[in-house]
Amino acid sequence: MPMAEYVRVVEVGPRDGLQNEARQVPAAVKIELIERLGRAGLRTIEATSFVSPKWVPQMADAAEVLAGLQRAPGVSYPVLVPNLQGLERARQAGVTDEIAVFTAASDAFNRRNINASVDESLERLAPVVAQALAAGLRVRCYVSTALGCPYQGAVPLDEVVRVTRAVADMGCYEISLGDTVGVGTARAAREMYRACADAVGHERLAVHFHDTYGQALANVYACLEAGARVVDASVGGLGGCPYAQGASGNLATEDLVYMLHGLGCSTGIDLDALVDTAQWISGVLERPPASRLARARAR
Amino acid sequence: MPMAEYVRVVEVGPRDGLQNEARQVPAAVKIELIERLGRAGLRTIEATSFVSPKWVPQMADAAEVLAGLQRAPGVSYPVLVPNLQGLERARQAGVTDEIAVFTAASDAFNRRNINASVDESLERLAPVVAQALAAGLRVRCYVSTALGCPYQGAVPLDEVVRVTRAVADMGCYEISLGDTVGVGTARAAREMYRACADAVGHERLAVHFHDTYGQALANVYACLEAGARVVDASVGGLGGCPYAQGASGNLATEDLVYMLHGLGCSTGIDLDALVDTAQWISGVLERPPASRLARARAR
């Protein structure tokens, strides 16, 4: 499988990142972050989440962020939506292009996270996806715990493939395969990716690795070799401050883009502008950026 | 090329790591570090350096460290030797098994580092290697700037291969190809490794990547796929504290071993004992370990 000439980078920092930062961030800062990322060349920027503010107070300003956002042409701003109420709130806030939904390939994780088995989770997801599609929205789906579960340990590859196929069949245009706990290594990542690509095709997949054990970039590389074309990452490693408790260890977008450009893949991203953005938002959060690249440039 | 079933990890923390740490470390701590690494299963542990104490005061206690060391059976303890005087000091200190020498593939780097061109550096190296071999010592050689030079930028692949072949011809049993500035990415790393393996054989090579730009593990993985069997790393990422000025960004041994075991490669290393060692030495240095693994385990 030749490596993709163009790799699309999906920026998840404003949502997945800021949601996991200890510091509450004003809507105006979120808006500036999203706009800077657009100017740096990102073409898919997950902007916010319509999860209940009771559960995720960091995202309570979702409507305000969207209302204030100066949208750039050609950029998609998916928002995370957990259920029908979330979809309704997103639509009231003016979301007209794209949402993201989520489930896990692990029963134990789904039970802890949304109090449902994998099958129940898929049943709940179906009407959300159907209503979104009926409203003309594109739907992206995260499948988490694709390489392991913090509660049940191993997750059978067959289950990952089954869930991936199920959400593809619902009509999700892209399924992002996530190693939520960051435990996977390159060979397992590539095998998992290949099995899912065999089931739904490369053009329906993205990969989403966490750097908790330092493996994210090696895992991305292994998947690129297997034909992956879309990779999720978080500017400045937002959400993954190495010294924070409960850090999710998001892969830093700038470390990813540095590798992609080195591999000869085009991304459309201006790496200098991206590093500037990482340094700026890390300054706002009053912590060093969690990316190697931003730290190296700062020296 | 099938991936190696057994990968030998060469531990460089006590020398390459501690030499680049701001804090001066007592000989007793160095000795304990080396002994802990041996108990964790490392079979090649670079112990110290006989570079002039005028230039590298951190290693002025080289003889004391060697004298105090309780050697484990089956473990090799190479010491770095820059020239004939260093070799003489090493032999006086009782080194009877192995030394390590170094050069760079870049003229500009050699001129800044040892005031010699690449060819002059090789001329100076030849009698050191010859005398060491005559004394029954094995010789390992570092070839640095194999993927780029901080002073001249690009380093021609032909030069890397030429230098590698030259030191192999001198009789070095292993040549460690180093991306000194950490600028290389996976494809370039693999191509460089392959070209050198074509010249001298896989059994004569090791790879030595720095994590300055976060690429080390992806680069290692790419080289393993190309047949690499020996990888250098530094426990706790010693020498590469992410917030230190001038950090070399050494790849952390425990992050490497985690990946190797995940890939199904055996190493003979007890990962838990290794992480314990990383946390212990980081505590002595009063800084967080620079490895993702040790930080994740600490949470």
TrEMBL record, chains A, B:
State the source organism's domain of life: Bacteria
CDD domains associated with the record: DRE_TIM_HMGL
**Which stretches make up the Pyruvate carboxyltransferase domain?**
7-275
Q: Which GO terms describe its biological process?
A: ketone body biosynthetic process; L-leucine catabolic process
E.C. designation(s): 4.1.3.4
Top enzyme class, one word, equals lyase
UniProt cross-references to PROSITE patterns, sorted A to Z:
PYR_CT
Alphabetized, the UniProt keywords read: Lyase, Metal-binding
Q: In which pathway does it act?
A: Metabolic intermediate metabolism; (S)-3-hydroxy-3-methylglutaryl-CoA degradation; acetoacetate from (S)-3-hydroxy-3-methylglutaryl-CoA: step 1/1
Q: Name one GO molecular function term.
A: metal ion binding
UniProt entry tagged with the keyword Endoplasmic reticulum: no
* PANTHER family attached to this UniProt entry: HYDROXYMETHYLGLUTARYL-COA LYASE
NCBIfam families, alphabetized: PRK05692.1
The family assignment reads:
Belongs to the HMG-CoA lyase family.
User: What is the protein name stated in its UniProt record?
Assistant: hydroxymethylglutaryl-CoA lyase
